[in-house]
TrEMBL record:
The organism's place on the tree of life at top rank: Eukaryota
Originating organism: Glomus cerebriforme
Protein name per its UniProtKB record: NmrA-like domain-containing protein
Domain NmrA-like intervals: 64-177
Pfam families per UniProt: NmrA
InterPro entries: NAD(P)-bd_dom_sf, NmrA-like
Length: 185
Protein backbone atom coordinates (compact mmCIF):
# COMPACT_ATOMS: atom_id res chain seq x y z
CA UNK A 1 0.00 0.00 0.00
CA UNK A 2 1.02 3.56 -0.53
CA UNK A 3 2.05 5.87 2.26
CA UNK A 4 -0.91 8.18 1.63
CA UNK A 5 -2.73 9.05 4.85
CA UNK A 6 -6.36 8.23 5.42
CA UNK A 7 -8.59 11.03 4.20
CA UNK A 8 -12.24 11.25 5.21
CA UNK A 9 -14.44 12.96 2.64
CA UNK A 10 -18.12 13.76 2.80
CA UNK A 11 -20.16 14.83 -0.14
CA UNK A 12 -23.67 15.44 -1.27
CA UNK A 13 -25.59 14.30 -4.28
CA UNK A 14 -24.28 16.31 -7.20
CA UNK A 15 -20.74 16.56 -5.81
CA UNK A 16 -19.47 13.46 -7.64
CA UNK A 17 -16.54 15.29 -9.22
CA UNK A 18 -15.36 16.59 -5.82
CA UNK A 19 -15.51 13.09 -4.35
CA UNK A 20 -13.79 11.56 -7.38
CA UNK A 21 -10.94 14.07 -7.11
CA UNK A 22 -10.56 13.53 -3.36
CA UNK A 23 -10.34 9.75 -3.79
CA UNK A 24 -7.95 9.82 -6.73
CA UNK A 25 -4.95 7.59 -5.94
CA UNK A 26 -6.45 6.02 -2.81
CA UNK A 27 -5.56 2.39 -2.12
CA UNK A 28 -8.85 1.66 -0.33
CA UNK A 29 -12.14 3.52 -0.36
CA UNK A 30 -15.06 2.94 1.98
CA UNK A 31 -18.01 4.64 0.33
CA UNK A 32 -21.35 4.86 2.09
CA UNK A 33 -24.16 5.85 -0.21
CA UNK A 34 -26.94 6.00 2.35
CA UNK A 35 -29.41 8.40 0.79
CA UNK A 36 -31.83 8.14 3.72
CA UNK A 37 -29.41 9.41 6.38
CA UNK A 38 -29.70 12.99 5.18
CA UNK A 39 -33.46 12.76 4.77
CA UNK A 40 -33.90 11.48 8.31
CA UNK A 41 -31.33 13.73 9.99
CA UNK A 42 -33.92 15.98 11.65
CA UNK A 43 -36.86 13.55 11.78
CA UNK A 44 -38.49 12.69 15.07
CA UNK A 45 -39.00 8.95 14.72
CA UNK A 46 -42.23 9.30 16.66
CA UNK A 47 -43.52 10.57 13.31
CA UNK A 48 -42.60 7.27 11.67
CA UNK A 49 -44.17 5.00 14.29
CA UNK A 50 -47.61 5.55 15.69
CA UNK A 51 -49.28 3.42 18.33
CA UNK A 52 -52.93 2.75 17.60
CA UNK A 53 -55.02 0.24 19.53
CA UNK A 54 -51.89 -1.33 21.00
CA UNK A 55 -50.31 -1.78 17.55
CA UNK A 56 -47.36 0.09 16.12
CA UNK A 57 -47.91 1.57 12.69
CA UNK A 58 -44.73 1.95 10.67
CA UNK A 59 -45.40 4.54 7.97
CA UNK A 60 -42.90 4.44 5.11
CA UNK A 61 -43.03 6.37 1.87
CA UNK A 62 -43.34 4.42 -1.40
CA UNK A 63 -42.09 1.03 -0.14
CA UNK A 64 -44.48 -1.91 -0.38
CA UNK A 65 -44.19 -4.96 1.86
CA UNK A 66 -42.59 -7.14 -0.84
CA UNK A 67 -39.68 -4.76 -1.55
CA UNK A 68 -36.41 -6.30 -0.37
CA UNK A 69 -34.01 -4.23 1.69
CA UNK A 70 -30.36 -5.02 2.46
CA UNK A 71 -29.90 -5.30 6.21
CA UNK A 72 -26.82 -5.13 8.44
CA UNK A 73 -26.02 -4.39 12.06
CA UNK A 74 -23.92 -1.32 11.24
CA UNK A 75 -22.36 -1.07 14.70
CA UNK A 76 -21.32 -4.73 15.04
CA UNK A 77 -20.87 -6.10 11.53
CA UNK A 78 -19.45 -3.33 9.35
CA UNK A 79 -16.02 -3.05 10.99
CA UNK A 80 -15.11 -6.76 10.64
CA UNK A 81 -15.91 -6.64 6.91
CA UNK A 82 -13.82 -3.51 6.35
CA UNK A 83 -10.96 -4.93 8.46
CA UNK A 84 -10.91 -8.13 6.38
CA UNK A 85 -10.82 -6.14 3.13
CA UNK A 86 -7.90 -4.09 4.43
CA UNK A 87 -6.15 -7.25 5.67
CA UNK A 88 -6.51 -8.97 2.28
CA UNK A 89 -5.22 -5.82 0.61
CA UNK A 90 -5.65 -3.80 -2.55
CA UNK A 91 -4.33 -6.52 -4.88
CA UNK A 92 -7.49 -8.52 -4.18
CA UNK A 93 -10.02 -5.73 -3.75
CA UNK A 94 -8.96 -2.75 -5.93
CA UNK A 95 -11.74 -1.83 -8.33
CA UNK A 96 -14.30 -4.07 -6.61
CA UNK A 97 -17.66 -2.90 -5.32
CA UNK A 98 -18.68 -4.68 -2.13
CA UNK A 99 -22.22 -4.42 -0.82
CA UNK A 100 -22.15 -4.58 2.95
CA UNK A 101 -25.29 -6.43 4.04
CA UNK A 102 -26.09 -9.66 5.83
CA UNK A 103 -29.27 -10.41 3.90
CA UNK A 104 -31.90 -8.96 1.60
CA UNK A 105 -35.28 -9.23 3.29
CA UNK A 106 -38.76 -8.12 2.29
CA UNK A 107 -40.16 -5.24 4.33
CA UNK A 108 -42.93 -7.63 5.45
CA UNK A 109 -40.27 -9.84 7.09
CA UNK A 110 -38.91 -6.83 8.99
CA UNK A 111 -42.39 -5.97 10.25
CA UNK A 112 -43.07 -9.62 11.20
CA UNK A 113 -39.75 -9.92 13.05
CA UNK A 114 -40.39 -6.70 14.98
CA UNK A 115 -43.79 -8.10 15.99
CA UNK A 116 -42.20 -11.40 17.05
CA UNK A 117 -39.33 -10.00 19.11
CA UNK A 118 -41.21 -7.14 20.81
CA UNK A 119 -44.50 -8.91 21.40
CA UNK A 120 -46.25 -5.84 19.99
CA UNK A 121 -48.03 -6.06 16.65
CA UNK A 122 -46.38 -3.91 13.97
CA UNK A 123 -48.29 -2.89 10.84
CA UNK A 124 -46.87 -1.35 7.69
CA UNK A 125 -48.58 1.62 6.10
CA UNK A 126 -47.14 2.63 2.75
CA UNK A 127 -47.44 6.36 2.25
CA UNK A 128 -48.38 7.66 -1.19
CA UNK A 129 -47.39 11.15 -2.39
CA UNK A 130 -50.40 12.78 -0.73
CA UNK A 131 -49.87 10.96 2.61
CA UNK A 132 -46.18 11.77 2.58
CA UNK A 133 -46.87 15.47 2.00
CA UNK A 134 -49.06 15.49 5.14
CA UNK A 135 -46.70 13.50 7.36
CA UNK A 136 -43.35 14.88 6.17
CA UNK A 137 -43.96 18.11 4.22
CA UNK A 138 -40.26 19.02 4.14
CA UNK A 139 -39.32 15.52 2.94
CA UNK A 140 -41.74 15.41 0.00
CA UNK A 141 -39.17 16.34 -2.63
CA UNK A 142 -37.97 15.23 -6.03
CA UNK A 143 -35.15 13.02 -4.65
CA UNK A 144 -37.55 11.00 -2.52
CA UNK A 145 -39.98 10.63 -5.40
CA UNK A 146 -37.19 9.24 -7.61
CA UNK A 147 -36.12 6.59 -5.08
CA UNK A 148 -38.10 3.80 -6.72
CA UNK A 149 -35.15 2.60 -8.85
CA UNK A 150 -33.94 0.47 -5.94
CA UNK A 151 -31.27 0.60 -3.31
CA UNK A 152 -28.41 -0.77 -5.35
CA UNK A 153 -29.72 0.15 -8.80
CA UNK A 154 -28.85 -2.22 -11.61
CA UNK A 155 -25.22 -2.87 -10.73
CA UNK A 156 -25.01 -6.68 -10.51
CA UNK A 157 -21.72 -6.46 -8.63
CA UNK A 158 -23.55 -4.71 -5.79
CA UNK A 159 -26.36 -7.27 -5.68
CA UNK A 160 -24.13 -10.16 -4.54
CA UNK A 161 -24.27 -9.84 -0.76
CA UNK A 162 -22.68 -13.28 -0.32
CA UNK A 163 -19.35 -11.43 -0.41
CA UNK A 164 -20.13 -9.89 3.00
CA UNK A 165 -20.81 -13.33 4.46
CA UNK A 166 -17.49 -14.63 3.13
CA UNK A 167 -15.65 -11.67 4.62
CA UNK A 168 -17.50 -11.96 7.97
CA UNK A 169 -18.91 -15.48 8.49
CA UNK A 170 -20.53 -14.53 11.83
CA UNK A 171 -22.52 -11.62 10.40
CA UNK A 172 -25.94 -11.32 12.05
CA UNK A 173 -29.19 -11.60 10.18
CA UNK A 174 -31.98 -9.11 10.87
CA UNK A 175 -33.81 -11.36 13.31
CA UNK A 176 -30.66 -11.83 15.42
CA UNK A 177 -30.11 -8.07 15.39
CA UNK A 178 -33.74 -7.38 16.34
CA UNK A 179 -33.62 -9.84 19.26
CA UNK A 180 -30.50 -8.13 20.62
CA UNK A 181 -31.81 -4.60 20.04
CA UNK A 182 -35.59 -4.79 20.63
CA UNK A 183 -36.23 -8.18 22.20
CA UNK A 184 -38.03 -8.76 25.45
CA UNK A 185 -35.92 -11.85 26.28
Amino acid sequence: MSQNPLIVVTGATGAQEDIKNALNGADIVWLNTNFWDQLLKDVDFGEEERVKNGEIEVAIYALEENIKLPMIDVDADTDPIIAKIIEEGPAKWNGKKIPVASEDVPLKHIIDVLTKVTGITHKLRTLNDEDNAKVNPAKNNEQVNQMEFGLFGKDEELNDISISKKLHPNIKNFEQYAHETYGND
